[in-house]
Amino acid sequence: MHTITELSLVRNPESTLPSDPESLRSEYARSTTQVLELVDEWAQRDEPVSFREFEQALRLAVAGLARAAVALFLALRETKLSQNCPSRIVRGKRTFRRAPAQGRNLTTWFGVVRYVRTYFREVTAVGRRHGFYPLDESLGLSSDRFSWNVLSFGVLLALKLSFSEARKILV
């Protein structure tokens, strides 16, 4: 079984992470079990336990669970949207056709999540063609790989700290 890990902020190669909802449901269930096992393991230790260390370990495990939940949510929304999308879309004088799905890294509050979404490529343009991702548009995702919560937090940090200090906190 694959593990949804925290990915890097740079472009990652196409991975073998599951992108279908059923595999992601299994991944979410596995992540939930990992959190419960972590709690049990820490609670049953014979040696003295530091709450600080437990909380740090739990935070990482819960972030992994949250990334699995976000990946599942994105896959379910993509499935719902793609069921209702025609093979061609006309917007004004521009025509777009469905193209192969493309992967993307999205930096969320819980870490980087990789997901796959349908792309519509412009077919009527001469020269440089543009396209769009129905899932990204419907969710209001920006094109810069960061969720609005991460962007908002980054702006808040930029107002209060130096760039290097803000970067350390965000990365």
Order of helices and strands: HHEEEEHHH
Please mark out the parts with pLDDT under 50 across 5 or more consecutive residues, or reply none.
7-12
Largest sheet: number of strands, sense, barrel closure: 4 strands, antiparallel
Q: Mind telling me the C-alpha Rg?
A: 20 Å
- Average per-residue pLDDT, rounded, comes to 88
Question: What is the beta-strand fraction?
Answer: 15-25%
Count of alpha/pi helices: 5
User: What's the total number of strands?
Assistant: 4
Shape: flat
Structural class: alpha+beta
The span between the termini is 27 Å
Into which percent range does the helicity of residues fall? 40-55%
Walk across the major sheet and give the strand order.
Answer: 1-2-3-4
Describe this structure as you would to a colleague.
This protein has helices at 21-43, 51-84, 134-139, 148-160, 163-170, and strands at 88-91, 94-108, 111-122, 131-132. The protein has 171 residues and is α+β, with helices and mostly antiparallel strands. A four-stranded antiparallel β-sheet has the order 1-2-3-4. β3 and β4 (131-132) form a beta hairpin. α1 (21-43) packs antiparallel against α2 (51-84) and α4 (148-160) packs antiparallel against α5. The radius of gyration is 20 Å and the shape is flat.
